[in-house]
Amino acid sequence: MAKKKNNPKEKLQELGKRVSSDIKKNKNPNIDVPIRALSNVSYDKRNKILVMGDKIAKRFFFNVAHAKKFMQTLEIAAISKKLIQEGKHASLRDVFYMAKRTIPSTKVNIVDEQPESDSIIEDLELVTENSRELLNINANKNGSIAGSVVVEDRGDRIDWSKMGSGGWSIPSNVEDIKFLKVNAKYVLYMEKAAVWERLHEDKFWDKQKCIIISSQGQTTRGIRRLLQRLNKDYQLPIYVLTDMDPWGIYIYSVLKFGSISLSHLSEKLALPSAKYLGITVDDIKNYKLDKHLIKFKDKDSSRLSQISKYEWFKDNKEWQRQFKMMKEMNAKAEIQALSSRGISFISEKYLPEKIKKKDFLD
Known about the structure:
Blueprint: H1 8-24, E1 30-34, E2 41-44, E3 49-52, E4 56-60, H2 67-86, E5 90-91, H3 92-99, H4 114-128, E6 137-138, E7 144-146, E8 149-153, E9 156-159, E10 168-169, E11 178-182, E12 186-190, H5 193-201, H6 204-207, E13 210-214, H7 221-234, E14 238-241, H8 246-257, H9 266-269, E15 275-278, H10 281-286, E16 294-295, H11 298-308, H12 311-314, H13 317-329, E17 331-332, H14 345-357
Parallel strand pairs: 5-6, 12-13, 12-14, 14-15
Antiparallel strand pairs: 1-4, 2-3, 7-10, 7-13, 8-9, 8-11, 16-17
Helix pairs in contact: 1-2, 2-4, 3-4, 8-11, 11-13
C-alpha cells in the first residue's frame, strides 16, 4: 500500500526528530511556523481563492518571547500523536484540558485558556501540512442537512431523506464519508437553522430535488468541506442564502473565497463557483419588504465599509452596486422578513422564482 504524501503521524515524528537533533547538537531548538496573518495572505485572482504566502516565523525554545508557545506546540503535537496511535479522536475542548496542567516546581500552566490551544492546533496544521481532523482533533458538530442522498459513515448507512425533523447532524470530520447515492440538482446553504427548519418542514429539498444545509452563523469547517466535496465530486452548484447585512455577506465571502486565518486550507474548503442567492437589496423592492428593514448600527456601517474594500469585491460592479444601495438605505434585512408574505412564501415562491431566473450574484 502506497504511503500517504503527508502522513500525519510521520509528520509529527519528523517534528520531534528535528527538535531532538537540535538538542543533541547543542543548538537552540526551533520550529518553523508559517505566519497566519493578513500580511502573509494574498488573493489568487486566477483561482478565486485566498492563499497563504511563504513567510515563516521561527519559534525558539531559548527565547523568552517564544518559549511558552514552543512548549505548547510540542505538547499539542504529543497529544495528537497519541490520539493517532490509539485510533481515537478528541474535541478542541478535550485537547485543551489534556494540555492544561501546571509545570512542576512552577506556577506556570502549559495553557490557561482554550484559545491558546486552539491557536497552536492551527499552527500544527501548517507545520505538519495536515488538517486538524487528520490530526484526530475535531470541533463540535454544528449543522443540519437533508436531501435525497445516502452515505456511509464508519460502516453505518445513512439516508439524509429519512432523518426526521432535525435532519442529519453534520460531523466535524467528513473526509471518510462515502457517498452511495446523490440525487440532487444543486445545494442550498443557509446561515440560519430556523430557515432550514422551515424549508425542511415544507419538503423543499424533495420538491426541488436539492440538498439543504444549515449552520448557525459562521460555517464550520466540516460543512465547508462537505459542500466542496458535493461541488467537486458531483458538479452540484452551491447557492448561498444569508441575511442582507455585512455579516451575512461575510459568511458568503468565507465560503466562496476562504478566510485569512485558514488560507492554508483554501484548496480544501473554498468554493470559487458558489453563487449568492440572497437576500439582496433588490429583493427588498421586488418582494415589498421595505417595512421590515432594521436600521444600521455603527458597527454595521463600519463592517460594510471594510467588506466593500476586499480585493475580491472592490472590482465587482454588481457587488459594489449592492454595497452602495445598502449604505444609502442605512439598513439591513433578515431572511425571515420573507415570512411577512406568508409562512411558506420563501419555499413556494421566493427561492423557486430566483433559482429559475438564475438571479444570483457571483
